[in-house]
Amino acid sequence: MGRIRKTTPLWIIGFAYFPPESERTEKLSPNYKGGKMAAVKRIKLGSQGLEVSAQGLGCMGMSAFYGPDKPDSDMIALIHHAINSGVTFFDTSDVYGPRTNEILLGKAFKEGVREKVELATKFGSVFEEGKRGYRGDPAYVRAACEASLKRLEVDCIDLYYQHRVDTTVPIEATVGEMKKLVEEGKIKYIGLSEASAATIRRAHAVHPITAVQLEWSLWSRDVEEEIIPTCRELGIGIVVYSPLGRGFFASGPKLLDSLDDGDFRKMQPRFQGENWDYNKTLFERVSEIANRKGCTPSQLALAWVHHQGDDVCPIPGTTKIENFNQNIGALSVKLTPEEMSELEAIASIDAVKGDRYMAGMSTFKGADTPPLSSWKSE
Fold it and tell me: GO: which molecular function terms (predicted)?
């Protein structure tokens, strides 16, 4: 499938400093040699008025799923560095930790910092009796929001997502309660994550959806078939998690060797056996183009996401300042239509073997809910 692009002006507000060559772990784009300053732009996310930095920071890996928790002091230093660099859009969830990631951000956003950022969190992914589940019933939505407000130590959440769709509860009931939270001033904007196109439409009819969060990268392109067009038809912003293929484009074939035993990527089909052996060749081909461009493979992969349009905000995660700086470098990588086509030819929708998640994990495929007529109010 050809790329889906949308272009309108962007607004420049911040700057990021890049350290000298001696302090870098990987080569940056030529635009950054000598410690030049790079603009971090602002974009309008959705059509309800939310404005965010053109690149955000996903905070999950600081507290969950990617190995042991990292020291709070180091993560707070990274968060403050991001803000000083012009990245002000932060993404967390009550399930990260669980709960400890929200507490971490609450600590980081004290003493006047809160006013400088756009804060997004999520509800709906739960672990009960050792099993993963999903909840979207109104009572749970409200209780989860109240708990997140306390952990984050804020009065209002800028963007509140349903993390995964509860397929037992009509989406109208879930979003109806979120709408009440907006009216009460507890959240400003509503989002969905990994929702089907039909669910997005039904939710948007109850209350405007500001953003849909989804996985989109040279490693995962199936959302281009239906989800992206639906969001654009409805004026919904697109927030992209795992734009680097869960670290694949940052580390390449050596990624698996660097993962801790508790890292959940080791359990994902794409990282296992014959799938992994096959998928590693994609990194080699992307690396060839990156070398030609004078940037790293991760910057090239992230630049590809940025070039999808100004309604798209990737939120790459990291726990290291040097990697954060490198990710910001992707904003300087300019791709021609021919280069975009070349990347999309080698990273077609079916170019990667293996599912994104292990069996039983919820994704937008099949994330539909019962009709509202089936729901009995609580």
Answer: oxidoreductase activity
